[in-house]
UniProtKB/TrEMBL annotation:
Species, as recorded: Chondromyces crocatus
A GO biological-process term: SRP-dependent cotranslational protein targeting to membrane
EC number(s) recorded for this UniProt protein: 3.6.5.4
GO CC terms: signal recognition particle
Main EC class the enzyme belongs to: hydrolase
This protein's name: signal-recognition-particle GTPase
Molecular functions per Gene Ontology: 7S RNA binding; GTP binding; GTPase activity
Annotated family: Belongs to the GTP-binding SRP family. SRP54 subfamily.
Boundaries of every SRP54-type proteins GTP-binding domain copy: 276-289
Length: 303
């Protein structure tokens, strides 16, 4: 995983090996390696540029700092370690989120609306999230409101049964009606988190967005999580931008990071949309789900 991303940083490190000083020239050489691998790993171009320019600025600043500290003698300082440390900090800052993953309701059940394109792993992620919250001592209710994909309701029911987490649906009702009725149902059943599995489509279109906007305005969820498939590379970022423009998503779940995804989506999403990656899907089963840690991801990329 992330081999493409890691390669550029490894090569940059090699370029700087044995050098004791970061100069404009060797910084440029190292950054060229990083640039290539970021682009190859599907990091969004604007994000690549911003990252490189921040690293360069810090690295040049660090050169001065080192010189001042050592009175002009830089022989004890490893250029490569300095460079990698700067990259680590910048990568982490690019992906980090402040505060908790989930915004909790002040009173009543916390609403989490989950949106995404068909096939992104949305229904699976709803079940994974429910399992995760259940383990945290919450009482989630899953709401099957993806009427677009006929099998989605059944799929969620099967997953709910396996996890012993209730699944709410009203056969024949519209997704908006189902979601609107779920709150009352959660109250009666003593459930404290409501996870709405909403419709997905193969592509973003107006009817989809309208339905999601209607559900949002009827249920007023505390969180809107977008599910994106890491395997679709640059398109994941475009998808995130479109959903965010329309729905103001609060966070992103990046799925299929267990595959041979190149990782660019996880790196670009917060920088492009402002909405951070909060969770990752790492496999098909419901236990393959983790909160996203920016520092851990930065360390894995840098090897
Ligand atoms: P939806 O149409 O967005 O609701 O997608 P599904 O939840 O049905 O998932 C589509 C496919 O992706 C299914 O075969 C899932 O098992 C698979 N899937 C979902 N999340 C992950 C993941 O994190 N890793 C892997 N490898 N497969 C996943």
């Amino acid at each position: 995983m992330f081999e493409t991303l890691s390669r550029g940083f490894r090569q940059a490190r090699n370029r700087l090996a044995g050098l004791t000083e970061l100069t404009e020239q060797n910084i440029e050489t190292a950054l060229r390696e990083v640039r290539l691998s970021l682009l190859e790993a599907d990091v969004e171009i604007g994000v690549v540029k911003a990252f490189l320019s921040r690293v360069k600025e810090k690295a040049l600043g660090r050169t001065l700092e080192v010189k001042v500290k050592h009175g002009g003698e830089t022989h004890e300082v490893s250029a490569s370690d300095h460079f990698i440390k700067i990259c680590h900090d910048e990568l982490e800052a690019m992906m980090a989120h402040e505060g908790q993953e989930i915004v909790w309701a002040q009173s009543g059940a916390t609403g989490i609306m989950v949106v995404g394109l068909q096939g992104s792993g949305k229904t699976t992620s709803c079940a994974k999230l429910a399992r995760y919250l259940d383990k945290e001592g919450k009482k989630p209710l899953l709401v099957a409101a993806d009427m677009q994909r006929p099998a989605a309701v059944e799929q969620l029911k099967v997953l709910g049964d396996q996890l012993k987490i209730p699944v709410f649906n009203i056969p024949g009702a519209s997704p908006v009606e189902i979601c609107a009725a779920a709150r009352e149902h959660a109250k009666k059943q003593g459930r404290d988190v409501i996870i709405y599995d909403t419709a997905g489509r193969l592509a973003i279109d107006e009817p989809l967005m309208k339905e999601l906007a209607d559900i949002k305005s009827r249920t007023k969820p505390d969180n809107i999580f977008l599910v994106v498939d890491a395997m679709i590379g640059q398109d994941a970022v475009k998808t995130a931008r479109s959903f965010h423009d329309r729905l103001d998503i609060s966070g992103v779940i990046v799925t299929k990071l267990d595959g041979d995804a190149r990782g660019g989506a996880a790196l670009s999403i917060k920088e492009v949309t402002g909405a951070p990656v909060l969770f990752t899907g790492l496999g098909e089963t419901t236990d393959k789900f983790e909160p996203f840690r920016a520092d851990g991801m930065a360390s894995r990329i840098l090897g």
